[in-house]
Amino acid sequence: MRLPQARLDQVLDRFAEVETRMGAAGEGAEIVRLGKEYAQLRPVAEFARRLAKARADRAGLEELRSADDLEMAALAREELAALDARLPDLEREVALLLAPRDADENASAILEVRAGTGGDEAALFAGDLFRMYQRYAQTRGWRVEVESLSEGEAGGFKEIIASIGGEGVFGRLKFESGVHRVQRVPDTEAQGRIHTSAATVAVLPETEDVEIEINDQDLRIDTYRSSGAGGQHVNKTDSAVRITHLPSGIVVTSSEKSQHQNRARAMKVLKAKLHDQKRDALDAERSRSRKDQVGSGDRSERIRTYNFPQGRVTDHRINLTLYNLPKVIAGEALDEVIDPLIAEDEAARLASLEESFG
To answer: Residue 242 belongs to what domain range?
Structure first.
């Protein structure tokens, strides 16, 4: 892809304008707004400058390659070959920065894992999936904090909600949203038959920098006593919190020891869900072709199968099959699934950018 010089000039002009206005801005709100735009434009401007310089250098080398000085001409051809090898990567880097991207790419995330069809085995699988994401988060230095959970009768989870904090969490995990299917022989299966179960995963961006207006009159807040396995850790008071957002029907809960902390956590999850609702509404307005891409995040479709007897993981959206299931489910090799999904999404974004150039 060759980016039009006019598009690069447009980015550099806007960056210079924002830089100038930041120095003259007096109001706090304007300074914050310009600061955010400056932070977004800075990496694009830096790469755009590098690309513009590389193009100018290439034009100069083109003139020198046919110089009368044979030694100079040979040197110019050598440098031109090296520059031509680097230019496509530089063009692609700038194009990716210019391509339409998810505004929540760098956000932290709320992770929800729920048991689907399959009874006790589905809850066990939900537990396996959560531990996979938990270990993966540890390898990337992200923080994982459980917001609420409901344990399965035979282990695992009927539902578990956690916040994952760190740079770029949502950008890497957003493609995990969907129905995950497992095929394996349950421990409780006496005949050794393979069972198929499912769990759903939802990854929502946290909304710290997004204005979500919630009116108190739209909320019903209930407190109740947490259930547990017994012993000293069971709550003796009604500290668990359930918040119902009446207009949307969304219900969130948190069941730690502190009622004040539970309310704060539940509100954080509620804001994330309302923000996700807004994202879905915006997605619906985009073109159908874009919705069909990996980035659609449609959680109603089966996205991946984990086949234990064959040691196989298959992502159905990009027809990717790997035979290293133990490492994937342990979180060690999850990047081998995520990276191709991100690459597919980047290709779609570049295609969208190319279409915009006509």
So the answer is: 109-348
Q: In this structure, are residues 18 and 41 in contact, taking their beta carbons and an 8 Å threshold?
A: yes
Say if residues 240 and 226 touch (Cβ distance below 8 Å).
yes
283-337 tens-digit pLDDT: 554 444 334 434 333 445 689 999 999 999 999 999 999 999 999 999 999 999 9
Residue 357 lies in a domain: no
For 93-147, how does the pLDDT look when each residue is reduced to its tens digit (9 = 90+)? 888 888 777 778 888 999 999 999 888 999 999 999 999 999 999 999 999 999 8
β-pair type (250-254, 240-245): antiparallel
Residues 309 and 167 in one domain: yes
Q: Are residues 137 and 182 in the same domain?
A: yes
Is residue 322 within 8 A of residue 329, CB to CB? The reply is: no
Q: Do 258 and 223 share a domain, yes or no? A: yes
Whether residues 80 and 225 share a domain: the answer is no
Task: Looking at the structure, tell me whether residues 64 and 134 fall in a common domain.
Answer: no
CA distances from 315 to 89, 180, 203 (A): 28, 9, 17
- Separation between Cα atoms, residue 186 and residue 124, nearest integer Å: 9
Neighbours of 205 (CB within 10 A): 25
pLDDT of 16-69, one tens digit each? 998 888 878 777 778 888 888 888 889 889 999 999 899 999 999 988 888 778
